[in-house]
Amino acid sequence: MNFSEGIDRMQSSKVSLEKQFNYRPLRGHCVYFIGIGGVGMSAVARILINEGCIVAGSDVRTSSLTSTLEEMGAKINTKQDGSLMPAETDMVVVSASISEDNPDLKTARKLGIKVVKYSQILGSLMKEKRGIAISGTHGKTTTSAMISTILKTAGLDPTFVIGGEVPDIGGNAHLGKGNLFVAEACEYDRSFLNLTPQVGVITNIEEDHLDYYENIEKIINAFGDFASSISKNGLLVINNRDDNTAIAVKRAHCKVETYSLDISSDWCGEVISGGSGINRFKVFHKGKFFDNFLLKIPGAHNVLNALAATAVCTFIGVDRDSIRTALASFTGANRRFQIIGVKNDITVIDDYAHHPTEIRVTLKAARELYPAKRIWCVFQPHQYSRTRHLLKGFTKSFQNADKVILADIYAARDNDYEKTAMHSVKLYEEIRNTGVDVQYIPQLCDIVHVLSSRVKRDDVVVTMGAGDVWKVSYDLVSIL
Fold this sequence. Notes:
Helix content is 37%, strand content 23%. It has 19 helices and 21 strands. Strands 8-7-9-6-10-11-12-13-14-15 form a ten-stranded mixed sheet, sandwiched between helices. Strands 16-17-21-18-19-20 form a six-stranded mixed sheet, with helices on both faces. Strands 3-2-1-4-5 form a five-stranded parallel sheet, sandwiched between helices. Its EC number is 6.3.2.8.
């Protein structure tokens, strides 16, 4: 069943897209995305293009994602000043980062065009299939990518929307012919509560997005709402070693399965070897041997992601041979410990880590993979508010790096108060006080020049952050 047929079917149902949005995005209609360059927004835009919708949009930054959309026929502008919205626009989709004073959004409001959130349209798409939603503070993208890879390997042709590019399966989105819909479920703005999954995953729950939630109790409560949204005949898969998740899962009405490296979990992983960059591990299900697995991506955290993916796909009905084969060929998502290049025996890696826990586990994986090499970490903090709220956590995250270079904070959704209340210099001072060899270099272009003159043979450079710090890794490789 294609999307247009699905919408026709939903006309007669109690919960229809028309009732939710007063709009039916049928073939030929125009949908305008404000913030179309976002990973999730671009993914939904790709799906609608493939369904025959006319897609246009705006974003202040161009990227490979916007270039791909333009190649598919989307009309994209970087002005975002309200002047280039097509006259035939039927619906406007906004990302969670778009504020009410955005000129494009103000134009849409003035013209009376229906405006919906990205998460709402994602939820409406999921209703037409068997939804699988992957949530959690960390590991969502990799776990979503693993599940999508397994389902594709098994021949189930899922639709998926992932918060990162996954080259092995065609990018960050795909409109499949099968009845499964895999979506990375973001908790910011309680967006994941717009989804109606039959299967859910909670990888972990930590303090994040405190500019919205204020405290961990409110975050746990939102995840509790997510847990309660899983259909009663479905499955919720959770990390058994996360105390906050244990609180949230009490709200679930469905079957729950746990995973960890502890034999007390329903799904247990026993790591055999992992220092060479290849994780070999045994999997046990309810105490019984399930199979031997291999992952080509480093870190014990990725073994946990694989356990969650295995639990989900087994519930769906995928055989263990397909799971094992898919995981063995899985090379990861872009910006997740992605090796950008090796030049003159200098290895350059890029990673999306922007939370203290993510930084710590990524550098731990780098140290395990390169135990005798000098590791440089180039970190670009993401959001003034996140840096302020999690300052103490950030200061303790760089112990596995030999040298740290700190860039200026990348602003996203930050108000004027946040921009004056925090500065990278403050983070630099806190990190230096822990004994870490850290240097503050505000501009990315200057960081590239410093690195190019100081890195030596056998060094490893890891760029980290959710902003545009990835440019450093590519520029450095081109210079070396």
